[in-house]
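Let us practice reading a record.
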Amino acid sequence: MPIHDWTRVRANRFHDFHQSWTIAIRNALNGGLLPDGYLAMAEQITGGPEPDVVTLSLPIKPGEGATGGLAVAETPPKVRMQTQSNAVTYARKANRITIHHPDGQVVAVIEIVSPGNKDSKHAVRSFARKATEFLLAGVNLLIVDLFPPSKRDPQGVHKLIWDRIRDEPFELPPDKPLTLAAYSAGTTITGYIEPVAVGDTLPDMPIFLTPGRYVPCPLEATYQASWDVFPKALKGPLLEPPK
């Protein structure tokens, strides 16, 4: 299923699709992708930013350890770009938000970018700031942005987030203006970036449970499942050939 051009429709239509996609991702994670001791919940208030899906680690009994997922050292995520910074070790010594959840510790957040996250300078800066707060609080992050850069984020949301962590050059390929970005929030914050474009098939992206272990997020399969139930009457503009 190729990625559709969601700029062709009003924001409320993407919001409807967004809601369905969020639930599809949650269901896939809880349906066997997450190892024992972890669960995913949709749209939870975490004490910090409000994400689409949170992955929780349930309390571990003495003598037990949370395991499972793929080891980065054995199965590195397949992405086009990778970057990392260990400078945040010192930044974390400052006062930062602490994220708690009554059902367990928040270990990862999935955020699907909506038009509202990018419709003003304040909105996009707030999004980047809150994403950085998650990472500095030790919460892993997966961001899916199917909207092209604007004058407020000329190199996409990853560049805005990473500029708050480490100042280094970054440019999206001209033919791949959409961004998938997974971050592991260990002592070193590592970003795994996969640029995509309208018409591409969505690759699986890692959801990190610990700095060294992750599970693949089935973006393509869940996107397809959500598209299958998206109202037929609203699909027309999204099915038109590229201009």
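A brief commentary: Residues 60-66, 87-99 have pLDDT under 50 and may be disordered.
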